[in-house]
């Protein structure tokens, strides 16, 4: 099996709290697998602005926030000490509302961004916002559960609905997997009303993936029992896929992101690593 050489610039975003340090280990292992450079961005919320009306409280809050920033960055740097790959650790210390935009600037030059899943951030709202911003920046964004053990991807699941985002997700799959990978193309509730004179949904993208040397198979599943997001994750897990890749649906309205319900649910809960592509 040939080694995948598409991933050379990996970004990981963490908040540097103790619960996030396992994600640093995961990012180091993933970068090592691909012999890639790893950039770790440590985001720390500056809570001083909330106390701006009281000069004394402001001074105390800025000092406390700065102490946290230094502790978080030091913890991440210590965790990355002696890594077998090149590692850069950057600190982002700003008002909560500005942090996601700053993280986006880092992500624009990465091949993939790794974000710890639910439970690995002090502020889950900040975690979700960072994921959304990176996704809209165009970088494939992998949200990983704490149990994930990085390895070469030889089996991927692709959520397919023939949307523009799904087409982009299919191209991302080609960058993520190893040669000759197994790829499950999953269509949910897409055979309802299907006409026999038309290709089965997913058949054409499976053919495209097969032409790249992969073993692509279409699976039609229903969502009635678990909903679309649950059905996708359950099926991918039962197939023992290494990763689920999905086109993240949403659109930007000024500074507010409006996500599709399936995307929002997948961001909230991960059974396996999920890559969002927009």
UniProtKB/TrEMBL annotation:
Q: What is this protein called?
A: Universal stress protein
Source taxon at top rank: Bacteria
Ranges where the UspA domain occurs? 8-96
Q: Which Pfam families match?
A: Usp
To which protein family does this belong?
A: Belongs to the universal stress protein A family.
């Amino acid at each position: 099996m040939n080694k995948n050489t598409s991933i050379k610039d990996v970004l990981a975003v963490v908040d540097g709290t103790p619960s996030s340090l396992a994600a640093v280990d995961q990012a180091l292992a993933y970068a090592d697998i691909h012999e890639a450079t790893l950039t770790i961005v440590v985001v720390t919320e500056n809570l001083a602005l909330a106390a701006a009306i009281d000069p004394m409280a402001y001074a105390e809050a800025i000092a406390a926030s700065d102490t946290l920033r230094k502790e978080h960055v030091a913890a991440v740097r210590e965790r990355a000490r002696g890594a077998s790959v090149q590692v850069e650790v950057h600190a982002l210390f700003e008002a909560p509302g500005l942090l996601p935009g700053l993280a986006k600037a880092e992500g624009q030059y990465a091949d993939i961004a790794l974000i710890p899943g639910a439970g690995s951030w002090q502020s889950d709202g900040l975690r979700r916002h960072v994921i959304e911003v990176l996704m809209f920046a165009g970088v494939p964004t992998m949200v990983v559960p704490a149990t994930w053990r990085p390895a070469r991807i030889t089996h991927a699941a692709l959520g397919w609905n023939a949307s523009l985002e799904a087409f982009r997700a299919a191209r991302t799959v080609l960058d993520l997997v190893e040669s000759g990978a197994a790829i499950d193309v999953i269509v949910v509730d897409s055979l309802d009303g299907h006409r026999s004179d038309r290709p089965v949904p997913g058949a054409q993208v499976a053919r495209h993936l097969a032409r790249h040397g992969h073993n692509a198979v279409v699976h039609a599943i229903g969502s009635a029992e678990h909903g679309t997001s649950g059905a996708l994750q359950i099926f991918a897990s039962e197939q023992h896929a290494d990763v689920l890749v999905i086109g993240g649906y949403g659109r930007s309205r000024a500074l507010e992101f409006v996500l599709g319900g399936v995307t929002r649910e997948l961001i909230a809960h991960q059974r396996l690593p999920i890559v969002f592509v927009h």
